[in-house]
């Protein structure tokens, strides 16, 4: 009991501090966006979506690359926790990628009048990357053996992580237009806009970190609960195993094998 | 290493020659797709961008048939176990499979490209043929490497026929971009030449994915 409570951060721990910091910074960023940053001369109010769309895109792509690095750590060390971190990073990045595609689509509709614009290389690359990563979870789901599942998922994460920059280069080469005016770099933005943008970027990055920590904590808690329940069942007596069979996790999410999830002898232990 | 690869490649080609599992299906699929394109587009001849698009889409989809079959025999008949028991470098299997897939793709193109020129292509392939061969060869290299990696990734899952294409197609997109852009002027009415930057893009993509596949392939076998 002592061991598990040490591993689980309660709301007073770093998770709580992280959540409070994220909420505060998000509030600051949004008030900067709406009350401090000047209106864009050409696009007016619509341009404000830039402070949401671009940080989401940057954080999501960084998340994919970070997941690839975590997957490298997993293949090097063979420890399941790296695979779990990689899984969570890809999961969150996928959600952020959906948000990026939606905000980008809204922006395209607002400024060009179309929901989808093929001449926008970054948006198109993003869609391709999203389509690739959308197969990550089906791939995991389709592999029974947990050890092989984590290994194959890591191979996928590394391949896809390396694909992200290559794909962006290829799509950018293919389109005649370069990225829209505001995005070039922060250096040609007015200082107020640049400041707002940097604050929004940090806020979104913190949001990503918070959500990842929450998911990791939830997963660890679930595993510990499962291990404890198994231990309790084992102590309650071997004869009555009404609850014991097939309490296998129904998700493709990775599990820590050290936590005793497999040792308890689930009847279908993987091929 | 070279002897291992040669032995494995020989085995692959021998199996293909005896069972004819992949190449005839790929060729037939490509021919049928040309017919489908003829009716779907309601065009009896195409050129330029359209021609390049039809050619690449057809070749890639036909390639996916080969990719899906590539490791099936090894997974079902214990070929992986046999290979793992042998004291040889595991990269040899990747190389042999990629070379085998490359052979299949070349065989496919020997049928599909003349058929395409005959059935759908407006301008004649005369002077631009050497350049087209170069573009197709660079594209084939990439398809072979990526296809082998994806096939190894998908073959031991429950839904391998589904996952193979889903995984492969996004990874093929840069090849389509560079390959189609490079071959569009070659198939255009006035003729033209492939832009060097697309050839360079294809070559670079092949090289990077080759290194990546070589680095990662071990982990797909390790059991």
Rg of chain B, Cα atoms, Å: 18 Å
Low-confidence stretches of chain A: 1-5, 181-186, 258-271
pLDDT averaged over residues of chain A: 81
**CATH fold-level assignment of chain A:** Four Helix Bundle (Hemerythrin (Met), subunit A)
Secondary structure layout plus pairing:
The complex is a heterodimer of chains A (271) and B (223).
Chain A: H1 2-7, H2 14-36, H3 50-77, H4 80-112, H5 121-133, H6 136-141, H7 146-174, H8 191-236
Chain B: H1 2-19, H2 23-41, H3 48-69, H4 72-77, H5 79-85, H6 91-119, H7 129-155, H8 160-183, H9 196-221
Helix pairs in contact in B: 1-6, 2-3, 2-6, 3-6, 3-7, 3-8, 6-7, 7-8, 7-9, 8-9
Overview of the molecule:
The complex is a heterodimer of chains A (271) and B (223). With 271 residues, chain A is mainly α. Chain A has 8 helices and no strands. In chain A, helix 3 packs across helix 8. The N terminus and C terminus of chain A are likely disordered. Chain B is globular and about 55 Å long. By secondary structure, chain B is mostly helical. Chain B has one domain. Chains A and B meet through helix 5 and helix 7 of A and helix 7, helix 8 and helix 9 of B.
